[in-house]
Specification:
The protein is an alpha/beta fold. The chain has one domain: Alpha-Beta Barrel (TIM Barrel), CATH 3.20.20. Strand 5, helix 11 and strand 6 form a beta-alpha-beta unit. The two termini are 19 Å apart. The structure holds coproporphyrinogen I.
Amino acid sequence: MSAAPTKPLLLRTLACEDTAGATPIWVMRQAGRYLPEYRELRQKAGSFLALCRDPALASEVTLQPIRRFGFDAAIIFSDILLVPDALGLELGFVDGEGPVLGRPLRTAAAVAALPSFDPARLAHLDEAIARTRAELPAATALIGFTGGAFTLACYMVDGRGGDFWQARRMLHAEPDLFQRIIDANATAIASSLAAQAAAGCDVLMVFDSWAGLAPRGREEELLLNPLRAVMAQLRAAGVAQPVIAFLRNASHLAAAAAATGVACLGVDWQSDLGALSRELGGRVALQGNLDPAVLLTDPATVAREAQRVLAAYAAPAGHVFNLGHGVDKETPVANMEALVAAVREGSGAARG
Ligand code: 1CP
């Protein structure tokens, strides 16, 4: 009798299965500017957006950190702002500043004119996913992603990152208008995630990175209902992949978010992983939460702090090691190597 094919460690962990102490590791923004091979390819491509839109290059950039560090998951190289771009908001990238939407949503007329999301506009992403899945080892999971409805709305109204004053003004002054954007986003998110699943992603992640900016008392309408809507639309469409939700700086919502049907919650580095794992462990997996600044120190400090995170997690299963936010571009490669080694040693020999 042949052995059953081994389910990737990340998938077993997301299902809160017993992994005999083995903890999977991947890192948010693991493909990016701290890697010399990324900088080289980005220069060749000419721009960040050219990299995203070329399936062969996007796939290559996705695979770079897997070859170098052997992470348990790859995350497809793309950006949360490609969905607003596909909705006609005209994404550009200003060197030294970052992504900018050329046609931000400021008026009722602009919101009314928003088209429905057509996943065919991101066909290059599907192709990058298919190519990447074909290249990846079977044990390495592939993650597809979008932004969360609120985070996307923040960028769509302001047009760029920062304090999102225009979006925050609109949600108080014109709550119905802001809500229309949120609702449209939830549908677009579900549609994009379903397309990414169909193209070959094993896991789906929603980055609601600016969840912490939602005013207290408005979390249901701005954060939780849209997440529930995304989950309902995915499941209605027959998409069975586990979903990781990252509501950054909103750990007061963790119990409610855990009840939406997601498999896992991302935990930012300001939150208490130990307390959350005692409260929610077994019900959902938790992903996190090393402070990315630790990766700017030295290998010994990295190893010590990685152990601290591993030790903080208090449930018997369901810990996905990650940072509490994305890796910084000044991170030395040697520190990332030290992190992976520390997590592999610290989480026991029993892997695979
Ligand atoms: O080369 C460069 O200068 C581009 C930098 C860069 C990269 C590497 C951007 C611009 N996006 C990305 C890729 C990216 N973005 C990934 C790839 C996969 C991986 O993790 O390796 C992912 C998952 C994202 C997601 C993303 N984009 C988020 C959510 C996660 C987070 O960090 O909070 C957000 C908020 C964005 C918007 C965005 N895209 C890029 C930048 C610099 C920003 C932030 C803009 C701002 O707020 O000012």
